[in-house]
Amino acid sequence: MFITPAFAQTAVPAGASSFATIVQWAPIVLMAAVFYFLLILPQQKQQKKLKAQLSALKRGDKVVTAGGIIGTVKKTTDDATEIDVEIAPNVTVSVLRSTISSVVTAKA
């Protein structure tokens, strides 16, 4: 036979403990927690706020599209995916509600 038998290494090397394993994983867990609290959680809050603003859009609100166009909402319905935005006097375009990146001023 050409294959020699391979023997598995022992599960825990001599002198190693579970504390050493915890110390090795601690920086990775700490980095994951920092990423979550500094990056992911604030982004989720911002997305939730924008979604609420988009669902509450009404005539007269000033919005910015993803393309950077600033305009005033002229026509919207609650269940429609498109809204009409006036970008210049007598120039109205229809944009997707999902392409609005922010609401600049909301009409009270």
UniProtKB/TrEMBL annotation:
**Annotated InterPro entries:** Preprotein_translocase_YajC
User: What does the UniProt keyword field contain?
Assistant: Cell membrane, Membrane, Protein transport, Translocation, Transmembrane, Transmembrane helix, Transport
Q: Which GO terms describe its biological process?
A: protein transport
List the residue ranges forming a coiled coil, or say none: none
Q: Which residues cross the membrane?
A: 22-41
**How is it placed in the membrane, per its record?**
Single-pass membrane protein
Give compartment(s): Cell membrane
State the GO CC annotations.
plasma membrane
| Major place of residence | membrane
Its domain of life?
Answer: Bacteria
Q: What does this protein do?
A: The SecYEG-SecDF-YajC-YidC holo-translocon (HTL) protein secretase/insertase is a supercomplex required for protein secretion, insertion of proteins into membranes, and assembly of membrane protein complexes. While the SecYEG complex is essential for assembly of a number of proteins and complexes, the SecDF-YajC-YidC subcomplex facilitates these functions.
Name listed for the protein in its UniProt record? Sec translocon accessory complex subunit YajC
